[in-house]
Write a structure and sequence with these properties.
The structure is a single chain. Helix 3 runs parallel beside helix 4 and helix 22 crosses helix 24. The N terminus is likely disordered. By secondary structure, the protein is an alpha/beta fold. It is globular, with a radius of gyration of 26 Å. A seven-stranded mixed beta sheet has the order 1-11-18-17-14-16-15, with helices on both faces. The chain has 25 helices and 31 strands. Bound molecules: zinc ion (2 copies). The site of one zinc ion has 6 residues, from helix 22.
Length: about 750
Amino acid sequence: MNVPVTRTADAGTRPWDDLLAADELAYRTSEPARPARTAPLPSSLQPAFRAALRRRGISALYTHQAETYAAARRGANVIVTTGTASGKTLAFNLPVLDALTADRRARALYLYPTKALAQDQARALAALAVPAVRAAIYDGDTPREQRRQIRGWASLVLTNPDMLHVGVLPRHDLWAEFLHNLRFVVVDEAHVYRGVFGSHVANVLRRLRRLARLYGAQPRFLLASATIANAGQLARELTGEEAAVVDEDGAPRCARTIAFWNPPLLDPELGLRASPLGEASRLLAELARRGVRTICFAKSRRSAELIHRFACGRLEPATAARLAPYRAGYTPQQRREIERRLMAGELLGVTCTDALELGIDVGELDCAISVGFPGTVASLRQQWGRAGRREHGLAVLVASDDALDQYFMREPSALLERRVEAAILDHANPRVLDGHVAAAAYEAPLGDEDASTLGPEALERAPHVPELRRTGRGWVWAGRQAPAARVPLRSASADPFLVVDASSGDVLGLAERERAYSTVHEGAVYLHLGRQYLVRELDEEARRALVEPFEGDWYTQAKKDTQTSIEETLRVERRLGLELAFGRVSVSEQVVGYQKKAVADGATLDTVALDLPPTSFSTEALWFVPRPHQLEGLETMPLLVSSLHAAEHALIALLPLWAICDRWDIGGLSTNLHPDTSAPTVFVYDGHAGGVGIAERGFEQFEGWVADTARLLAGCPCERGCPSCVQSPKCGNLNELLDKAGALTLLRRMLAS
Ligand SMILES: [Zn+2]
Ligand SMILES: [Zn+2]
């Protein structure tokens, strides 16, 4: 059932009008064009820099660029969060390049989350050709013999947080000149630094501030982020300092039609829908036929390839030849070639995984199709931002059967009118912090005066960090090797499993110890950057999972027994007629087997038993105990546990609306009788050891979150629960014991309390 289609004024006819006149269109609206707001080039700019800008045809600024420059000139830290392609790069380049032009000794450090993005930025800086600026990349690929030269010569160093963490800070003596003259630190793509990774990077930046201060410098931080709800807070949590927020976008924008596209419901009882890949390929083919330049984002490489293949199959060969997939692993030259062909109009359609959204630089497209909600409103907006650069554009969301996608199809305002989610991190999570306290003590003895840069929590943790010794100079490192190398930034546990591609020897990623058994057990299908791998072996001794590329049409789902125990209750409040608690819990899990499931329809192909040891970790959780009157009529078993379990799943599916996280970052448990509460209880916990603030955000936003969840259940057209409401792809009980009606009854009673 689709909501009524609203047709707002859409002046003129568009090449896609007939295409959108279909039953699959769940919602349509449009965003108006916005004229540019500009400001003159500031008179205080260095003449040489101003001349370089003019040579590039830049004779005026957008207002947000001028504002960023002015705030930085005042000595403020700044976070700029304006739309995709609004010229954020020039915004932070202005004060930095101006300062480097004015003072030959001044230095700047640019941080990018990936090497590829640092390379893109280095190219952009080279193109700007500011005479006094000497930019160089310093990362794991930089040849040893060049490193020394770069440290001495470059005035602007581009690197990534990992290199800063293990390569630069522990050897700060080699960087003494650079740190002494460090004026600016640029943190681009700052919204990427959230969750565990963000919590680590926040500590790395604090260590950088501390060392800079030891060398007599106090660099300013300039951050750029996709639009998010809490930009000022993100800047403060990442750097430990206040920052001015620049969020009024002065860049012009073309009008844009937005379409929500829901694949037809094939089986209302089971909630089964037609494939979003098929629908996306149909749209892509039809748009190509109309000469509309389109980029299509899919969640995995396999999906992207299927969409490309299906679309080609629908087209005459001459048009099909003008579609191309865009893959990870292309060299920069191949990427530039595809981008050039798109801009020249030789290519009409490109299909890629959403992992590539950061690295693709295409200017002038007409349409962007997102196949499946990419997880955050910020990424969706970033994908849609590619549509309509020259003239009226089209942005499409094709829904998958995931609960969040289907919720948006019925409640478009939940997506379009909501402020973009908050990026959450917690630098003081002891699981993250301790490694950095050790690293900081290795870098220089740690004393009370460091509380102002590292944060008071770091000093509080120092006595608890093994291998630190108290001396007259402060806490010093008494271990052997530099501790930073043992602290991976993308994991909350100190000794994660390496995931290694046995066919190439490449390390694909890390699996936290607590999660390894459920994600990289033998026989698991592992997804990395949109590619599938099959786990051949989990070597516990070597802490290594050996995987190989995999082309099969199934995925795997682990079956596990989970238990929680409450370690400490930190907050209890009366909310929605019941006792809502937040605190620390210990979660123990034992993976007991897994199921192979068909990609096409989710059918179970096989069940395999596993013999793996239990693991446990401590994290943050919220939990609630429904009151007896809220459970009236649901008290019998198994209805009681099924109702709680279904409510837990639906709540977890919608928590990403309130906190930037993935449903895979959240765990849950529901029980008819919990030993610590002696009552029926639902737990929702942070899936990362120590917790990064996700459960706390759920605690704070409980009422709105529960209301969203009740709407999700009430609106789903299925009869008894389906993947679009109460079923979860990560359920350790393989989606057994779920009662949608019971869950809805409970949530409604809570909301009525
Ligand atoms: Zn349903
Ligand atoms: Zn479950």
